[in-house]
Specification:
Layout: H1 2-15, H2 17-23, H3 36-49, H4 54-68, H5 73-98, H6 103-128
Helix pairs in contact: 3-4, 3-5, 3-6, 4-5, 5-6
């Protein structure tokens, strides 16, 4: 008798529609195709291509700005570093172009190129080691 009752209970549980909802896989809308570290890597690469095609640097800073809010702290330091690299580099570019008629403009443009190249390479190397940028808001190289 107890066996029949247990069997009836099991059959009823199989046909219960509320049970189907609870066993369905959870809907995970935040599942990412590319991890934050992959996007940070892509931004560094876009910045390096930006020396030849300026539009890629603009795409990179847009990605960094959009991803910075939701990233974990180590990757967020890279995004902050990248955003500051773009804007400070843009200041060097504009000031260098404005002063190009003077000899100092060429030096400013050269310094801005070397400065941004070093920042991008150091950022890539730190990202490869899974290290955060120690001082992402610095004006120099994040050390």
């Amino acid at each position: 008798m107890a066996k029949k009752a247990a069997q009836k209970k099991a059959d009823a549980a199989k046909n219960d529609p509320s049970d189907i909802v609870s066993t369905a896989p959870p809907n995970n809308p935040t599942k990412m195709i590319i991890a934050d570290s992959g996007l940070a890597f892509a931004v560094y690469i876009l910045y390096l291509f930006g020396y030849f095609m300026g539009i890629t640097a603009i795409i990179g800073v847009i990605i960094a700005c959009l991803q910075a809010r939701s990233a974990n702290p180590p990757i967020k330091s890279h995004y902050t570093f990248q955003i500051r690299t773009f804007w400070i580099g843009l200041v060097y570019l504009v000031v260098g172009l404005l002063l190009l008629s003077l000899a100092v403009g060429v030096l400013i443009l050269l310094w801005g190129f070397v400065w941004s190249l070093v920042r991008n390479v150091k950022g890539l190397l730190a990202l490869n080691r899974n290290d955060p940028i120690p001082h992402p808001e610095s004006w120099m190289f994040g050390d």
